[in-house]
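Format notes (please read before filing issues)

Several people have asked whether sequences and structure tokens are stored in separate files. They are not. Every record keeps both together, in the order shown below: the sequence lines, then the token lines. Line labels are part of the format and must not be stripped during preprocessing.
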Amino acid sequence: MRHDYYSYTKEQLLADPKIKLFCLKDNASVFKQMAEEMAEEIRTHNAEGKKTVFICPVGPVGQYPYFVDMVNEQNISLKNVWFINMDEYLDDEKHWIPAEHPLSFRGFMNRTVYDRIRPELLMPPEQRVFPDPLDTGRIPELIEELGGVDIAFGGIGINGHVAFNEADPSLTNEEFLAQKTRVLEITPQTRTANAIGDFNGALEDMPRYCVSIGIYEIAHAGKIRLGCFRNWHRAVVRRAAYGEPSSAFPVSLLQGHPDLTLTFTDYVAALSDGI
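Then the structure lines:
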């Protein structure tokens, strides 16, 4: 069966989606917009004496250099900010891969974000949080203690996953949305896509397990901001915006969120010859 929405032009795509869509010129525009929203939310909360709580991805990552520059140049204090990262790869014993591993999300955040922010502006280490495979209940507890998540940032995987909440059509939509932080086996589709995008195609060395924030935590954030920019995101964006809500394509279950936006590039909005 061929779904009509996969052949939507840019104009059709933007005409009547089930979620709010923004189409920008290129990758840099998408990443800069995300960084600007991060910085603005923190500035606003700082001025009001409030904490800021983000769920943060390592994918997309292009927003972080812009964000670091904004923080350093505009003297934005992160002392009352919590970054709760979405996920991390695990080894075969289901422990975090070493931070020195080229695929480690912890290592990436240290190198690309935390080590580049002026020390007097940086939040303390206990506010830089990753889900722990040995204490998966900690993330939901922490979010509750902090009073909720202000914004969940992220991308969309090839099978519609947000974080590593992989498609599972054996679950009802309600059952899927109830899933919280947990250890997961990564699907072959996601391992392949990530190997191509992040590891030069070295599929045999890709981790098989991960620990991931649940779709529950993401769905209950005050705002959700998603960005798409890869060639296969052409299909992902169209299904996210026009497909039926289904645990077979998890991002579609977020269509009812009151403040969800999906931003993508002109490249993604365009149709390739293969669609």
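For reference, the curators noted about this record: The domain at 18-269 is CATH 3.40.50.1360 (Rossmann fold). The chain has ten helices and ten strands.
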